[in-house]
Amino acid sequence: MALKKEQRIGRHATLLLLTDDHRELSQQTEQIGWKSCLGKVGSMESQKVVAAIEVAAKQQGVISQELYRETHALYHAIMEALHGITRGQMQLGSVMRTVGLRFAVVRGNPYEDEAEGEWIAVAIYGTIGAPVRGLEHETLGLGINHI
After folding, report:
1. How many domains does the chain have?
2. Residues 91-100: tens digit of each pLDDT
3. Which GO terms describe its molecular function (predicted)?
């Protein structure tokens, strides 16, 4: 039941998010049979961040629009990543914070044993701070959940 060293899904999502050349890593993702998507969102409302990531994952075929369990798994991975970028305070606008974020969603099986099934990772990177340009700082969050 060990993780495949070269197929750590959270690491892969984070690298995909942070690299300047997404094409190479996206091709590697496809070669190992995984699915992925990238996107951007800026908001003062956390529900808009969640919605943007869910819509991108559905539109780009990372999760099925018809299967609730896939949306549910994605939701929990997003929440875990949001806890990372908001330092556990799941509030944005109500505490006068705004975010400008990029995200990556990766779906696949990171285990040697295929019976472990698929997992989903959400990596989020960007800026967070007061809604005044120039007064924000970097932030990074990662969430991983089984499907």
Report:
1. 1
2. 565 555 677 8
3. mRNA binding
